[in-house]
Every structure is written in structure tokens, then in C-alpha cells.
Design brief:
By secondary structure, the protein is of the alpha/beta class. Helix content is about 30%, strand content about 15%. The protein is globular and about 55 Å long.
Length: about 325
């Protein structure tokens, strides 16, 4: 469809009648919702809500991931004209997907943030919708997992990352983007025996029982073979997929707080995500996109593509019944 065929209405994130359908607008203007979805706090009839979590007060190195949700939304406008390649269906036409906006919190009251985020997710999940979160640093996954585990019990965690983020931390008051999955295991939110970490390339001697396919394994075994092994481990258990953008090599995603060389390529990540179609994905996040460290915008573009793949994974399962 040509732009002129779409009529004179613009900002369909504000004017769309219903939550389905594509938006044929200039990519360089208009409202910055994710994939030009409707901006709304009304979750009636919504299948999937996208929410932003602009929090980066838990980083150990370079801050800036609080700007990630805005950058990912902007980059996502590049994907709104055509169905996602290789999936064989169009989630934006078949499912009611909205942008729920960002979680509200007081940046100066950091200890209150985790409970605020868990409450935000509870509201979304109570409506019957799923959620994909745009971070923000990786610490956001823990409060989100608390809300999901309340509904599903212990989850399978599928984590793409350079770091395991399972460093020991028994202080309940600490908020750290390198310890949240240690706490998730200790709190019984995830079952490490049915969970997988992919792309790891930093040392942490205590794996807590997670299955790990490090970056070298993926490079040598191949993306398709790795995806098959991941599927076997996850089985049909409810899966939460957390994608730290530093799982990609800095050549593909330099805009992140703790870059590590030797990582996954964007092509490897795309193959694995698409070959996981059919897993019981109940939610996920894309985190650690830090726009100040990438003036090209390539990292945000990668983050937007990952988020679209998570949308497809979520919708694929529900489309298949």
C-alpha cells in the first residue's frame, strides 16, 4: 500500500479503530509507539501489551539503558510496512497488540522500583494479555518474573546474554543487573534444570544448574542445532525469554553497558529465535540497549528486531492453538 492510499490520517497509534492492522506512515515522523501500535491503558480484548521500563540504576558499568525503550520504539518504525520475514503470518493483522506505555516510578526512590514494576506487570497479566518489556537494564527481569511466577509457577528461563547474571547476592535490598537470576532461582521463580543461557562468554563458576550454550558452542555447532537442543530442554514448560542485547557481539550491538567480544551475530540470533517457533512463550524482555554508546542506532535496530521476534514467538503459539 502506498502512503497516499492510507488516507490523510496520521498517528494511527492515536487514531486507529481497534488494535489490529498495519500503519502506513512516514517512518521519520509521528507518534513513537512500538510498531505504531495503539497507545492505550485499556487492555480489554488485548492479546499482547508492549511496555517500556526506562530504569538503569542497577548497572555496574555504563549507564544509558533508561533511554532504550524510546530508541527501540523509534527503530521499530522501520518494520511496520511488511509482515516479519520468514514467519508466514502477520501478527499485527491477526492479534490485538498495543503499546501500554512505560511503567511509572520515582527515579529518586530506587528501593521502591521493583515492587512498582511487579505491580505494573500484575495489572497487564490480570487482563489476560501477555507482555513484552523494553528495558532498561537487566535487573528489570526479576520484578517481572515475580509477576509471571504468581500466575504460572516456576518458569523456564531462556536467556541470551554475554553474562550469566547469577552472581551470588543474598541481600534483599540490593538491586543489581548481575545478580537477578541468582535471586530468581533462590525465590523459586525459575527452574534452572529446564532453563537455558545462550551466548555466555564471561566466567562465573556457579551456574546454579542452568544449561549453558556459550558463544563458542553456537559458533561451532551452528544456530539451528543449538535451537534444537534449546527446544528439548524447554519442552512445553512456560517460558520467559530475556534477551540482553550484549548477547550480540559489539560489532552488531555496540550500544550497551558491558560489551564483550566474541558474541553472537545478529544472523545467528535471528535463526535461533525463528527456529524456536512453538515454544510455550508467556512473556519476555529486551534489555541493556544503551543509545548513548551507539550514534548509528544499530543497537536499537537490533533490539527492535529482537522484540518483533518475541512478538512472533508469542503469537505463533496462540495462533496454533
Amino acid at each position: 500500500m502506498a502512503l497516499e492510499d492510507a488516507g490523510h490520517e496520521v498517528d494511527t497509534a492515536l487514531t486507529r479503530d481497534g488494535h489490529r492492522g498495519r500503519s502506513y506512515e512516514n517512518t521519520f515522523g509521528g507518534t513513537l509507539s512500538f510498531l505504531r501500535r495503539s497507545y492505550t491503558k485499556d487492555l480489554a480484548g488485548v492479546d499482547l501489551a508492549i511496555t517500556g521500563v526506562p530504569f538503569d540504576q542497577a548497572v555496574t558499568n555504563r549507564s544509558g539503558a533508561r533511554l532504550g525503550p524510546r530508541a527501540i520504539r523509534e527503530a521499530s518504525a522501520l518494520q511496520v510496512f511488511d509482515p516479519p520475514y520468514g514467519w508466514g503470518f502477520d501478527p499485527l493483522e491477526e492479534f490485538a497488540i498495543v503499546d501500554y506505555g512505560d511503567v511509572a516510578f520515582d527515579y529518586a526512590r530506587v528501593p521502591d522500583f521493583p515492587a512498582a514494576l511487579t505491580g505494573h506487570l500484575r495489572t497487564i497479566l490480570a487482563s489476560g494479555a501477555g507482555c513484552i518489556a523494553l528495558g532498561g537494564d537487566h535487573s528489570i527481569s526479576l520484578p517481572i518474573l515475580r509477576a509471571y511466577a504468581e500466575r504460572h509457577g516456576p518458569l523456564s528461563l531462556l536467556q541470551f546474554d554475554a553474562h550469566t547474571d547469577t552472581w551470588a547476592d543474598d541481600n534483599p535490598l540490593r538491586i543489581d543487573h548481575g545478580t537477578m537470576f541468582y535471586k530468581a532461582v533462590k525465590e523459586g521463580l525459575v527452574d534452572p534444570a529446564r532453563s537455558v543461557q545462550v551466548g555466555i562468554r564471561t566466567e562465573n563458576p556457579d551456574t546454579l544448574g542452568f544449561h549453558i550454550f556459550d558463544a563458542r558452542y553456537v559458533h561451532e555447532a551452528g544456530s539451528a542445532a543449538t535451537a534444537l537442543k534449546i527446544r528439548d530442554i524447554l519442552g512445553d514448560n512456560p517460558v520467559y525469554l530475556s534477551f540482553d542485547i550484549d548477547g550480540l557481539d559489539p560489532a552488531f550491538a555496540p550500544g550497551t553497558g558491558t560489551p564483550v567480544w566474541g558474541g553472537l551475530s545478529s544472523a545467528q540470533a535471528a535463526i535461533m529465535l525463528r527456529d524456536l517457533a512453538g515454544i510455550n512463550l508467556v512473556g519476555g524482555d529486551v534489555v541493556e540497549v544503551s543509545p548513548p554508546f551507539d550514534p548509528t542506532g544499530a543497537t536499537a535496530i537490533a533490539g527492535a528486531h529482537v522484540a518483533m521476534e518475541l512478538v512472533c514467538l508469542y503469537c505463533w503459539r496462540r495462533r496454533a492453538g
